[in-house]
Amino acid sequence: MLSFRISPKTEKELSEYCEKTGTPKSQVVKEALAQYLIQKKNSLDPYEAGKDLFGQEGSGEEKNSKNYKSIVKSKINAKHSH
């Protein structure tokens, strides 16, 4: 068994919804909690969501972030030198 407190406003909205739909409060709460848990289970934290994009996997070179200006400059020079 589980007990919890909700604000009077939420209690009023829940009661109105349940009365309008003929749904027991306990059923609404069970369904809402089930949806919440599914959503939390399926959501990833930011690190987990981008984990496969971090590190040196793309180019295989470690220092691209430190040397990017010289890399870009050399590529532009190579492209425009005839």
TrEMBL record:
TM spans (from-to): none
A matching Pfam family: RHH_1
Signal peptide: none
Positions of region (Disordered): 49-82
Domain of life, per lineage: Bacteria
GO biological process: regulation of DNA-templated transcription
Species lineage: Bacteria, Pseudomonadati, Bacteroidota, Flavobacteriia, Flavobacteriales
Residues annotated as domain Ribbon-helix-helix protein CopG: 2-40
Name of the protein in its database record: CopG family transcriptional regulator
